[in-house]
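#struct-pred
JK: can someone run the complex with NAI? inputs below
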Amino acid sequence: MSEQQQFDVIVIGAGPAGYHAAIRAAQLGMKTACIDAALGKDGKPALGGTCLRVGCVPSKALLDSSRQFWNMGHLFGDHGISFKDAKIDVAAMVGRKDKIVKQFTGGIAQLFKANKITAFYGFGSLHAGNIVKVKQHDGSEIELKAPNVILAAGSDSIELPFAKFDGDAIVDNVGALDFTEVPKRFGVIGAGVIGLELGSVWNRLGAQVTVLEAMPDFLAAADGEAAKIAAREFKKQGLDIKLGAKVSKAEVKKKGKTTEVHVTYTDAAGEQNVVFDKLLVAVGRKAASKGLLAEGCAVQLDERGRIVVDEHCHTGVDGVWAVGDCVRGPMLAHKGFEEGIAVAELIAGLPGHVNLDTIPWVIYTEPEIAWVGKTEEQLKAEGIPYKAGSFPFAAVARAVAMAEPAGFVKVLAHAETDRVLGMHLVGANVSELVHEGVLTMEFSGSADDLARICHAHPSLSEAVHDAAMAVHKRSIHKV
Ligand code: NAI
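RT: done, structure tokens with the ligand placed:
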């Protein structure tokens, strides 16, 4: 083994949480190393984690391609635009996605270089005394040491024992980004974020999509009214979402040259059998803590395999921190961004902080679904008195002009203090609008504050304005 190398900060994982931590630490003058084991589709090291390689970024590329295709058949006519023989070239669409991934993963490598961060390509593990060992791709092992180590190992897809991923017929999010043709019958287990986004992609391109969801309620984590509106729109698009469907078997069978997946599930009507060409299993993700912590390093895992941290992302072991998907809190790239920055700043003696109560959620379907803060169901369960104001996009001139009138905005405010407690949105571009709610909540603003802020006309943001006004029953445009 080569000589031990010394750094001020070592980050394990170059995903959203890890690369933010590394860059901020380097900006603050610390000698920083960042380790990542991932390889790109070309077999070369690729920084950026799940988000850039096989998650947020590539799925958005496919969502946008498929949206353009879908709009040709479902929206262009409204605008008086006609065309003949629209076709989708799946290889070109996937190629475009790969190019975008390469651009952004390469961008992280450039940022590391510009910030003088030393990148190590291989699997890192933490040992007692803040020693990090890296098993590099060529098989060699190196040893690093630093007073501060940040664990940012991310998460992996959960595998169902009766539907193991084979990378071909039964896939996770990675496989479902790379189909070579549109599957005729596409099955999805789990009507969560990944299931709905990737189900939408292939549905828009012509697949017959069936989503099997074990829970009796659709999108149980979202506000009930928002989930209902979204479910109605998905049904119109032909997404067949079966609730209360408990899958017990998924068997891959060869039929001549083709492969089929035979799935058995049970719902209220009893046992059902259904056949798919491809099956996506998207039933959640688990912290990627396996092999990360060597015996004696004293870092604790919880019952779900997540690294135990306090509110400052400190593990309780001197100089050892953990951020992103491998710790508690929502598994969202932007939550990881903030934790990475906060920890680098705390190490530098600055006041780093992340408010988990104002993390926005976005599901990039059509319409998009977004929210921040509490749902009505949560407020009721917690006995918090609240007022609600909502406004439909069907009454917003800009949304109608765009021929995208589906959805609404709902503002929830405390009944006595008027402080905004939550905002729930379904509609076009609500991934952007939700930040009005985030800002208001971060600044402890009220529904009245939001209602008194001038919003441009015509713009989609008027739905937020009118919903805030509706909290006090003074929406101008609502009957
Ligand atoms: P998820 O937690 O969003 O949804 C999983 C769904 O599967 C749940 O509705 C659950 O009830 C259902 N389920 C669990 N076991 C099942 C079973 N045996 N049979 C049928 N249904 C079952 O998980 P998902 O979609 O895999 O995504 C993982 C994480 O990735 C999310 O929590 C999210 O944080 C992150 N992500 C975020 C995105 C975004 O922000 N737009 C996009 C993609 C992923």
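RT: quick notes.
The first strand starts at residue 5 and ends at 6.
The mean pLDDT is 97.
JK: thanks, will look after standup
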